[in-house]
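Forum: Protein Structure Q&A
Topic: Joint prediction for protein chains with partners

I've read a bunch of threads here and the consensus seems to be that you should model interacting components together rather than docking separate models afterwards. I'd like to see that in practice. Below is the full input, 770 residues plus whatever partners are listed. Could one of the regulars post the assembled result?
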Amino acid sequence: MVNDDGKIKTLTEDISLLETYIQDLFSFTPLPLCFVNPKGMVLEVNPAFVKATGYDEYDVVGENLTLFMEEKNAKEILEKTIKEGLVEREKTKIKKKDERVLPVTVFAKSRKIKGEGVNGAFLSFFDLTEVEEKEKKVKESNEKLREKVEELEKINKLTIGRELKMIELKEEINKLKKKLKRNKEG
Amino acid sequence: MMEEETKEEVIENESGELEDLRRYIEDFTSFLPLAFCMVNPLDYILDCNHAFRDVSGYEKMETIGRNIDFLFKDKDKGKIEMFSTRVANKDSVVEEEVTLVTKGKKEIPVRISALSRKDDEGNFSGYFLTISDITETKRFEEELERKIKERTKELQKAKEKLEESEKVLEVRIMARTQELEEINEKLEEKVKERTREIEKKAEELEKKAEEMRQTQTALLNLAEDTDKASKDAEKEKEKTLAVIKNFVDGLILFDLNKKVSLINPETEKMFGIKLKDVIGKSVKELKSFPALDPFVDLVGEELKEIFREEIATEKGAFLEVTTIPVKDVGTLVNIHDITREKGIEKIKSEFVSVAAHQLRTPLSGIKWTLQTILEEEDSAEIPEEIMSFIRKAYEANDRMVNLVNDLLNVTRIEEGRYIYEPEETDLMEIVDPVIEAYKDHIRKKQIEFEVQKPAEKLPKVKVDREKITMVVQNFLDNAMKYTKEGKIIFKVESINGKVKVSTTDTGVGIPDDQQKRMFNKFFRAANVQRMDTEGSGLGLFIAKNVVEAHGGKVGFTSKIGEGSTFYFTLPANKEEIDSFFEAF
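Posted by a regular:
Agreed with the consensus. Here's the joint model:
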């Protein structure tokens, strides 16, 4: 039989373990994350968020989402999350500390406490910069290739095309010569 | 009791907190849109979330307690083993790309990330593992790769086409290059040839340049000479002007437009005119000066060529005018004042006239006396020697009478008193008696004498019979006198309204250098002077003046040693005759 002290000790150790676990998990997650209260105030951010946005933890904790999101977007996403419990793949933009804009897709989930209702929401941000850059690169690459092909076609046209034109012209001249000869004979 | 209650409360609170934490973890892991699992140090899965289930297709219960490597493709198992070792030994996030095999055997490319966890004592207690589906990225990359391949293929095709074109072009370029090389060779040859030509030309030019330099030097010398010559010419001009100014004869210079360009002071004096009044005036315009009237009448508007022709001025002076055409300058008129000579000549003529008259009377007396003696019947009593002297004296006297007659005639001619009585006559009536008179004399000299008369009757001429007889006699006399042998032809003919009389002999002829002076007074050619010492040199002078006084002309042709032809013409046209005599 475990006495109360033993129970307390075990509970305290478990709590500590879970806290560490949560802390570790929160810190490890390679996805930029934040936890906000129903009003949109940031309560917690993970290191991936700090790395992605350039904001330090103390820059954002206690501030509203609108610090790095457009007010309208932030409001819509938060309201939808609270109302529907989940928001997936919502495209938006976040403003980094250096004012640069980061394209992202947002995943959000509300958090409810038994008997208290929604007490906040998790928000994670997938950085689309790389994807967009890749798209851009593909586009640029395509454009460059297209230009190259056009250029080659042009060169081809100028060389082979010109030769063909010359052949055509020679044939035309021969035809005209024959016609002239016939006219003279006629 | 209080303490007991507190422990219970603590237990309750902590249990609640623990529950909260678990719920938080559950909420968090279920929220995480990333597949997540908790793995122990032996790589066994302890927990996983919904996203993990979504990705792998395995339910939570099918996963927990299984080694992590069951999720991946066999070929990646080694990779996973190394991955977990790396995670255990590293404090930071470790990543790897592998292929996940879902429950439905679907292979999904994933990126796995892991972070080790340590216990309180720092021992490795497991790790968090997240699995990211990189299918889209891979697909995207594959798509990109495919597109790139496609494009590369297109590019390759285009490149091939281009290479074909290049080959065609290369062949053409080679052919063209060959053509160009040939052209180039030809061009080079041409260039060389041209260069040679240019060099040759350059040499020629150099030579020419040298010649030019020489010419330049010569021109410079010439310029110096010209300058000197110009100065000399200026001096000469000054001298000439000085000569002209001080020239004793009058000089008028007409330019090529026949306008007066110069007159000298002597001319001003002769005509009482001033240079400034006449300069630039034509001959016609000079007519406005009455003093110049005789001069203008003489030279005419055309400034005809005149040699020593006389005019009389209104002041009674006599001037001898000669016009001399000067090439590229105009016409120079020389006016020589012969008033004094005229006066002397007049005195001389008067003296000759008086002397001749004075001589003629005694000479006639002598002639008559000698003729009487020679014709006296008793003259036979006079010794022959004396008779010979008397005959010679008679002949000499006769020649003297003739000479005196000639002198008187000349005097009359020069005084303009050679007045005759012209009458219309058939010239043959004058000529025939003369022919008859000379016929025998000529034949006596063993000279053939031929008379050629016109077949038709001659037109009448208006002449002084005596004077024309004298001219015919003079011609025949000369022909006979200076012809030793051969023939004399006397011819009368009618030509173009004129009657022409000529004598042609085979006599001594006249030296060329003396022919111009044949009609001058007292002139006798040197060869005839040697043959005959008795001529006076007045016959042809008188004949010329007689013929010209009838409006006719006298002339001759002669060749030394071969003979001469002397002729004269007389006008036979009535109008011409009348016109001449009216003017005369």
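The mean pLDDT of chain A is 84.
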